[in-house]
Design goal:
This protein is an alpha+beta fold and 185 residues long. The chain contains five helices and eight strands, in the order βααββββαβαββα. The chain has one domain: 3-Layer(aba) Sandwich (Aminopeptidase), CATH 3.40.630. The radius of gyration is 16 Å and the shape is globular.
Length: 185
Amino acid sequence: MKLEKVDQKNLELAYHIQKTIFPEEPDFLFIRRSVNSDRIEFNHYIAYVDDRPVGITGTYTEKCDKDSIWLSWFGVLPNERRKGYGKEMLLETIEICKKLPFKYFRCYTSIEENASAQPLYKSIFDICEKYLNRNDKTPNDTIYSMSLTDEKVPYWNNKYIGIKEYDALSQKGEEYLKHHKKSIL
């Protein structure tokens, strides 16, 4: 497997992969922001097997925690599932994170919407906790965490992460594409 960083040349493919895996949550603007960012922790990658795209992965950070890096859009295309690519992609993402100045690797996910990924996350991450922040969108949401160092990973303890804002950005991205698609892709 090879992970190729998303840039302007493959942005359209990355968006297509993300939208295929998560049709209810297309997120063009967030992926595009990572292309235009100079932050070392804010990247997306297309996963390839034999020059064939099989999925997407990425990383970002939350302002409220300088010690953690988060798994961004992560998924395997439907026709490529059950071949071990998800685990390989996640482990390669973790290796990327170990080279960055962060202590912990975290993943926010919805138990219902991402049910197929739960066994993988449980097998890789150190801890799993419900995310129940009353100020955020939280029904059946979970945060997985692991240490990238020898230090024990602390629980997230329901600190606000702004899932509502990410959802709003997703909707803005779809509206933006309707009006600007030819000039940006």
